[in-house]
Design a protein that fits this description.
7-stranded mixed beta sheet, 2 domains, 15 helices, Rossmann fold, 519 residues, catalytic activity, alpha/beta, globular, cobalamin biosynthesis, GATase_3, 27 strands, 6-stranded parallel beta sheet
C-alpha cells in the first residue's frame, strides 16, 4: 500500500503521568511526517502549567505544540481543546478551545463533562476529516478507574471514537511489567478490548534480558509489545511535566565551555511553577550549567538566579519567604549579582501585587508586598492576556509569547524590551524582568544578554558560542525521536492498528482468575 492509503487514528496511553506518552506521540508524528503522511496530534484534555500561545491567541499544552512542530504544523487550539492549569491542590483554571473560562474544582468540572465531551468529539472529528492520521495522547493513566465515568482523554475517548490503544510504560520507574498488566486488568471488558499492545520506554541495557518478561506479558494479556525504546540522554527539551524538576536536578546536558569558565544558573523551583521550559534555552548554551533550587544556600554560588513563572504568584511568593529565599535574593541584589524574573517571577520582584484572580485563599482581592527589588506595582485583571509577540532589545530582534493576568500599573524602572512599539519589562542594574515567555529562545538576544550577565558576575573567562540555535536543537531532538521510533517499534503493526483498529480477538483479563494465568 502507498502512504496515501494510511488513514486512521490511534491513542497512546500511559501507565502513569510522565511515562513518555508525549515523546512517543511526538516521535510517531515525526516519523509519519517524514514518510509524507498528513498527520496531526491530539490531546483531548491536558493538565499542565507549561503552555504556549497559538497564532490566534489561544493556549495549549507545551507538549502539543512540540507534537505539532513534529508534524510540520503551527500550534493550534484544535490539538488540545481542554487544558487545566492547577492553581492550588483543589482548583484549576479551565481553558477551553484556548480561552480561559473560569476556575473549577473537581466537582465543578464533573458538571461540565457533557459540554466538554462535545467539544472534544467535534475537534477530533474535524481533525480526522482533514488529516490522514491523528495520533492521540491520553492523560495520566487509563487505570484511574475512579475517574472513568467522566474520562475525556483515555478510554472515554477511545470508546467514543473507536480508537485502538497502545499503553506506554516507563521501565526507569521499576515494575513496568506489573504496571502494564495491571493497567489492562483493572479496566472493564469493553475498555480492555481496545488495549491493543504495549510500548516500553527508557530501557537501558540488553533487550534480550527483558524479552522473557515481554513474552510472559503477551501470554498473560494476549497483547504484544510493539517495541522497546532505549533511554536517550539527549532528549530533554520541552519537558511538559515538572515531576523531575526537584532541587539539585540539572537541566539538559550542556556542552563544555566555549571559553575558559562556566556560567552557573540556579532556577527557583516554585511549588506552582509554570512554563518551567523557559530556562531550557539557557541550558542549550555550551558552558551554561543550570540547576533547580529551592533553598537559599543553593543560590549562593550561582552566577545567575532565575525566578520563573507561577500559576499562583502570591502563594508562591509566600512560599519563597517561608523558605528564606527572599533574603538571599535581596542579598544578591545588594551585591549587584544577576537576577532574572519571568512573568510571575517578574511580578514578585516588584513592590505590590493586587490579586483577585489567582489567589484563592480569600474571596476579596489580596494585596501582597513583593520583594521590592524593582519599582513595580502589579494588578491582576481579566481578560487574560495570551498572545505571541515580537519586538527588540537594544536593537536586537526578540520573539516570544505572553500568558498572564497581571498588568503593570506603575513603574519607574527603565524598560528592558520594546514589544509591539511599547515598552515592556524592567532592567535595573543586574536585575531584569519580563512578562514574555520564550524570550531566551531568540538566539542573538540570548547571546548578547548572557555576555552582560557574565560580565556582571565576574566570569571574564566565559564566552558564548557564536552559533547555538535552540530551534535547531529542538528539531534535532524531534528527528532523534523519529529515529528511535523507526528503529525500535514494529511499524507494520502500528500501521495495521491505524488502518484497521483494535483486533477483534483480544482477550479479557478476568481479575478473579489472575492467579491462573489471568485469561
Amino acid at each position: 500500500m502507498s502512504e496515501g492509503d494510511l488513514r486512521g487514528a490511534v491513542l497512546i496511553a500511559g501507565t502513569t503521568s510522565d511515562a513518555g506518552k508525549s515523546v512517543v506521540v511526538a516521535g510517531i508524528c515525526r516519523m509519519l511526517a517524514r514518510r509524507g503522511v498528513r498527520v496531526a496530534p491530539f490531546k483531548a484534555q491536558n493538565m499542565s502549567n507549561n503552555s504556549v500561545v497559538t497564532l490566534d491567541g489561544g493556549e495549549i499544552g507545551r507538549a502539543q505544540a512540540l507534537q505539532a512542530r513534529a508534524c510540520g504544523l503551527a500550534p493550534s487550539v484544535r490539538f488540545n481543546p481542554v487544558l487545566l492549569k492547577p492553581g492550588s491542590d483543589r482548583r484549576s483554571q479551565l481553558v477551553v478551545r484556548g480561552q480561559a473560562i473560569g476556575t473549577v474544582g473537581a466537582r465543578d468540572y464533573f458538571t461540565r463533562r457533557q459540554q466538554l465531551r462535545a467539544v472534544v468529539a467535534a475537534e477530533l472529528d474535524s481533525l480526522r476529516a482533514e488529516f490522514d492520521v491523528v495520533i492521540c495522547e491520553g492523560a495520566g493513566s487509563p487505570a484511574e478507574i475512579n475517574l472513568r465515568a467522566t474520562d475525556l482523554a483515555n478510554m472515554g475517548l477511545a470508546r467514543a471514537a473507536d480508537l485502538p490503544v497502545l499503553v506506554v510504560g516507563d521501565i526507569d520507574r521499576g515494575g513496568v511489567l506489573a504496571h502494564l498488566f495491571g493497567t489492562v486488568a483493572v479496566l472493564e471488558p469493553a475498555d480492555q478490548q481496545l488495549i491493543s499492545g504495549f510500548i516500553i520506554n527508557k530501557f537501558r541495557g540488553d533487550v534480550s534480558l527483558l524479552q522473557p518478561g515481554l513474552d510472559q506479558l503477551t501470554t498473560l494479556t494476549g497483547r504484544p509489545t510493539l517495541g522497546v525504546l532505549p533511554f536517550a540522554e539527549d532528549l530533554w527539551l520541552d519537558a511538559e511535566d515538572s515531576l523531575g524538576t526537584v532541587a539539585g536536578t540539572p537541566v539538559g546536558r550542556p556542552g563544555s565551555p566555549h571559553g575558559t569558565e562556566w556560567l552557573t544558573v540556579a532556577a527557583i523551583r516554585l511549588p506552582r511553577i509554570s512554563n518551567s521550559t523557559d530556562i531550557e534555552a539557557l541550558a542549550c548554551e555550551p558552558g551554561v550549567a543550570v540547576r533547580w533550587a529551592d533553598a537559599p544556600d543553593q543560590l549562593a554560588t550561582a552566577d545567575l538566579v532565575v525566578l520563573p513563572g507561577s500559576k499562583a504568584t502570591v502563594s508562591d511568593l509566600e512560599w519563597l519567604r517561608a523558605k528564606g529565599i527572599d533574603g538571599a535574593l535581596r542579598s544578591r541584589a545588594a551585591d549587584g549579582r544577576p537576577i532574572l524574573g519571568i512573568c510571575g517571577g517578574y511580578q514578585m520582584l516588584g513592590h505590590r501585587i493586587i490579586d483577585g484572580i489567582e489567589y484563592l485563599a480569600t474571596p476579596e482581592p489580596w494585596v501582597a508586598s513583593g520583594l521590592g527589588l524593582l519599582d513595580l506595582d502589579i494588578e491582576f485583571a481579566d481578560p487574560k492576556i495570551a498572545r505571541q509577540v515580537t519586538g527588540s532589545a537594544a536593537g536586537i530582534p526578540v520573539h516570544g509569547y505572553e500568558i498572564h493576568h497581571g498588568r503593570v500599573r506603575r513603574t519607574t524602572d527603565p524598560a528592558w524590551l520594546t514589544i509591539d512599539a511599547a515598552s515592556e519589562g524592567s532592567a535595573r542594574e543586574a536585575i531584569w524582568g519580563t512578562h514574555v515567555h520564550g524570550l531566551l529562545e531568540s538566539d542573538e538576544f540570548r547571546r548578547a544578554w548572557l555576555t552582560e550577565v557574565a560580565a556582571r558576575a565576574g566570569r571574564t573567562g566565559f564566552t558564548v558560542a557564536p552559533d547555538t540555535s535552540v530551534a535547531a536543537i529542538r528539531t534535532a531532538q524531534l528527528d532523534l525521536l523519529a529515529d528511535l521510533v523507526e528503529q525500535h517499534l514494529d511499524l507494520a503493526a502500528l500501521d495495521r492498528l491505524i488502518r484497521v483498529g483494535a483486533p477483534d480477538d483480544l482477550p479479557v483479563i478476568r481479575t478473579g482468575t489472575i492467579g491462573s494465568a489471568g485469561l
